[in-house]
Amino acid sequence: MKILSKEQIYEGDKLTAQRQNISSTELMERAGTQIFNWMHMRMQGAQVPIHVFCGIGNNGGDGLVLARHLVNHGYNVHTYVVNYSDKRSKDFLVNYDRIKQVTKEWPTLMACEEDFPTITPEAIIVDAVFGIGLNRPIADWVKKLFQHFRASKAFTLAIDIPSGLQTDSVPESENDVVWAGYTLSFQSPKLIFFLPETSKYSVQWEVLDIGIDLEYIYKLNTEAELIGKQEVLPIYKPRKRFSHKGSFGHALIVGGSYGKIGSVTLSSKAALVSGVGLVSAYVPKCGYVPLQVALPEAMVITDENEKFISNISFDITPSAIGVGIGIGTQDETLLAFENFLKENKAPLVVDADALNLLSKKTELLALLPKGTVLTPHPKELERLIGEWKDDFDKLNKTKAFSKKHEVIVVVKGANTITVFQDKYYVNTTGNPGLATAGTGDVLMGIIAGLITQGYEPLSASVFGVYLHGKAADIILEDFGYQSMIASYVIDAVAEAYIDLFKQPEQPQVSEAEQEES
Ligand SMILES: NC(=O)C1=CN([C@@H]2O[C@H](COP(=O)(O)OP(=O)(O)OC[C@H]3O[C@@H](n4cnc5c(N)ncnc54)[C@H](OP(=O)(O)O)[C@@H]3O)[C@@H](O)[C@H]2O)[C@H](O)CC1
Ligand SMILES: [K+]
């Protein structure tokens, strides 16, 4: 799913109105009605107090449409206009008139703290104060209103985006923002739903379809894309009936040091379950027995050194190489890595300590083949690109780094983001159970394994991140967040592949809709 910028969203509204020959007021009616349908399906007329707080722009206008429908359906609704400016939008005014026609209880105008209503914890707050039009610091009393929402402990439903957030920046203080339990977003999810610093403001989100012109969306090139099953299915390469193990390449996993051989075992096994034909592991001598015992499917090549890698040399021709897990940052290993990079022609995935070696000697970056995949966790990323001010700065710096060195950077996190050239691929699978030893080794093995099978490095990264997260989601039911370990994730990769071809569940249909049909 494409993640549109604010400018692209406004453009989509305009084009839709033109091409469908509807007014912006009608588009707002669709938006507000969709929110109403969503609530009505869940609430079925329940008399819970609903407080709808509307700003004076189009986000507020959506709120007024919703409030009118709630009134018309007999809900216990209170509507407020948060009067932070005199410059009301045209469609806000149209809907301000319309709601006055359906109720004697006109919206309450609010202009200072004294106007705040009491909100009980069992009430529902609808936040339609600011949408994507927020463009400057917010008045103090409005910030206080947001804090009043939070202090009430009432369930908060944000329309389009939690008020106080902008689509392309991180707020200065968490007190300046509405903390929404749920956000119903129009047309496109917002990038801030997926970034570590801003995702907490919208615990859950959903996109509502308001009928934006499909051709416009289809042709649009967006900076960010959300990666789910629909996006990875076209990447998947079906197997031919007459294929054999030679058809799926030979992966080489280079890594390990004394006490850290397990990382290579995990990566090699992950490469195997991703579908490679052959896997070899290159480890220091001390890794020979453990690997042969733990993973009989793998072949093992040993370094001349007992405890760490000192000279990466082998006489096989791997289709792709994954390097770095458990390798350490010894000077001898750095030299071995440098010599390896000077000779190597195979596509590469670089992880863990090999990333730290790159940060230690940045000249090595020039030796990476084009399209090399780097898979840093936040600390490793910081060593590569330097400190960042906030999540947007981090993404911009990563993008610049990716362009400069012509590499793909997989920024690992709750929503792993693969960055390549001008684009962000935001993954949707995975869960906090993955915050455990060895899961990074598994991811590296899967990505290296996919490249080995002939996937382009970018596709392998996006698909690999998806499969890895999906495997973790599948085993969540059995192991929970606490007891999930990396080996179980490997075991579930098979199920993650199979899940690609499962039919989606039928959407939930409300009783009201069933009766109508
Ligand atoms: N396709 C869609 O997604 C649709 C979305 N809709 C809804 O429209 C909003 C965006 O509406 P907009 O009117 O552009 O903006 P807001 O409602 O967010 O803000 C209103 C105006 O407030 C001014 N502003 C901005 N920041 C501040 C501030 N800190 N203090 C005071 N005032 C501020 C600004 O106007 P200025 O001219 O004064 O700069 C804003 O324009 C979107 O989020 C959806 O909810 C449509 O209803 C349907 C289609
Ligand atoms: K809002």
From TrEMBL:
Pfam families: Carb_kinase (PF01256), YjeF_N (PF03853). Belongs to the NnrE/AIBP family. The gene is nnrD. The lineage of its organism: Bacteria, Pseudomonadati, Bacteroidota, Flavobacteriia, Flavobacteriales. The keyword rRNA-binding does not apply. SUPFAM superfamilies: Ribokinase-like, YjeF N-terminal domain-like. This is Bifunctional NAD(P)H-hydrate repair enzyme. AMP binds at residues 412-416, 440. Bifunctional enzyme that catalyzes the epimerization of the S- and R-forms of NAD(P)HX and the dehydration of the S-form of NAD(P)HX at the expense of ADP, which is converted to AMP. This allows the repair of both epimers of NAD(P)HX, a damaged form of NAD(P)H that is a result of enzymatic or heat-dependent hydration. Catalyzes the dehydration of the S-form of NAD(P)HX at the expense of ADP, which is converted to AMP. Together with NAD(P)HX epimerase, which catalyzes the epimerization of the S- and R-forms, the enzyme allows the repair of both epimers of NAD(P)HX, a damaged form of NAD(P)H that is a result of enzymatic or heat-dependent hydration. It catalyses: (6S)-NADHX + ADP = AMP + phosphate + NADH + H(+); (6R)-NADHX = (6S)-NADHX; (6S)-NADPHX + ADP = AMP + phosphate + NADPH + H(+); (6R)-NADPHX = (6S)-NADPHX. Transmembrane segments: none annotated. It comes from Corallibacter vietnamensis. Coiled coil: none annotated. InterPro entries: CARKD, Nnr, Ribokinase-like, YjeF_N_dom, YjeF_N_dom_sf. PANTHER family: ATP-DEPENDENT (S)-NAD(P)H-HYDRATE DEHYDRATASE, ATP-DEPENDENT (S)-NAD(P)H-HYDRATE DEHYDRATASE FAMILY MEMBER. Binds 1 potassium ion per subunit. Keywords: ATP-binding, Isomerase, Lyase, Metal-binding, Multifunctional enzyme, NAD, NADP, Nucleotide-binding, Potassium. Its EC number is 4.2.1.136, 5.1.99.6. Its cofactor is Mg(2+); K(+). Residues 9-218 form the YjeF N-terminal domain. Residues 228-500 form the YjeF C-terminal domain. K(+) binds at residues 59, 127, 163. (6S)-NADPHX binds at residues 58-62, 131-137, 160, 326, 377, 441. NCBIfam families: yjeF_cterm (TIGR00196), yjeF_nterm (TIGR00197). Homotetramer.
